[in-house]
Amino acid sequence: MKKRSKVKFADNRVIEAEGIGDVLIQRKDGGQTLIIEVLYVPTMKNNLLSTGQLLQKGFSMNLHDGTMGIFDKMQKKIPKAKISENKTF
């Protein structure tokens, strides 16, 4: 879907999002999870997921030992990420 919007960061930088789409994630257990209405921001080097938006969509997060796990509504683990040097996952 072609819908332009802006993403504002904590340091007040703003970048342009060029669309919204759905992302199908292949889980390690062979299943799939769909995350709907994800912003497409081609100028970003890394993927950006908002924990607030994931919570609104029924996902949950578990933070433990420098790692964040994301779980779908059925409590199936989707991705797992380690904390980076800049304190993001």
Structure described in brief:
This protein is mainly beta. It has one helix spanning 51-56; strands at residues 5-8, 14-17, 19-26, 32-40, 60-64, 67-71, 77-82. It has one domain.
Please tell me about this protein's structure.
The chain is mainly beta. It has one domain (5-82). 7% of the residues lie in helices and 46% in strands. It has one helix and seven strands. The strands form three sheets. The protein has a three-stranded antiparallel β-sheet. The longest helix is centred in the middle third of the chain and has 6 residues, at 51-56.
Q: Per DSSP, what share of the residues sits in E-state strands of 2 or more residues?
A: over 45%
**Structural shape:** globular
The beta-strand count equals 7
- Total tally of structural domains: 1
* Number of helical segments with 4 or more residues: 1
Topology pattern, helix = H, strand = E: EEEEHEEE
Question: Runs with pLDDT <50, length 5+?
Answer: none
Helix percent band: under 10%
Order of strands in the sheet with most strands: 5-6-7
**Using only CA atoms, what is the Rg?**
14 Å
Give the overall average pLDDT: 85
Amino-to-carboxy terminus distance: 27 Å
Backbone structural class: mainly beta
The profile of the biggest β sheet is:
3 strands, antiparallel
